[in-house]
Write a structure and sequence with these properties.
Order of helices and strands: HHHHH
Strand content: under 5%
Oligomer: single chain
Number of strands: 0
Number of domains: 2
Length: 147
């Protein structure tokens, strides 16, 4: 393996490890993240090196798009972008998919937009002015998220 390929692999693995480390940390209640549960293939409550490595390997499996046995920076970057885009798309579908069929319709999107707009329109005048917009900046870290 050439130095460039090794460096790319190590960089991708480091990024994946950091992301998984964040996902696998315990929250304040002692609960493990969902990815920990998926990585724990035998559901033993702990991860072996093999289980941990398999999780990272699965994420990088599609990165070698030209099948030459090497993952270039471009291939790894493309895979990371694809993974992030799919994650964001799943979140979007979960938030807007009213009927739970796993797909979005124009009606579901418009319905969600109307709900979000109604929450912003605090004085119910059918318009949102600057004073009704959620504040950003120091002391206002909570996002305005309608249910």
């Amino acid at each position: 393996m050439t130095f460039l390929a090794l460096a790319g692999l190590l960089g991708a693995a480091t990024a994946q490890v950091q992301a998984q480390d964040d996902d696998m940390r315990q929250d304040g209640k002692g609960n493990h993240g969902m990815r920990f549960e998926r990585a724990d293939a035998d559901q033993s409550g702990d991860l072996t090196f093999e289980e941990y490595a398999a999780t990272i390997d699965a994420r990088l499996a599609n990165a070698d798009t030209d099948g030459d046995g090497r993952m270039t920076v471009g291939e790894i970057a493309d895979e990371i972008v694809r993974i992030r885009a799919e994650r964001q798309a799943r979140r979007l579908v979960r938030r807007f998919d009213v009927n739970g069929d796993g797909a979005l319709t124009a009606d579901e999107i418009e319905n969600r937009q109307r709900k979000m707009f109604a929450l912003l329109d605090r004085n119910d005048d059918g318009m949102v002015d600057r004073s009704e917009m959620p504040r950003r900046g120091k002391g206002h870290h909570r996002r305005h998220r309608p249910q």
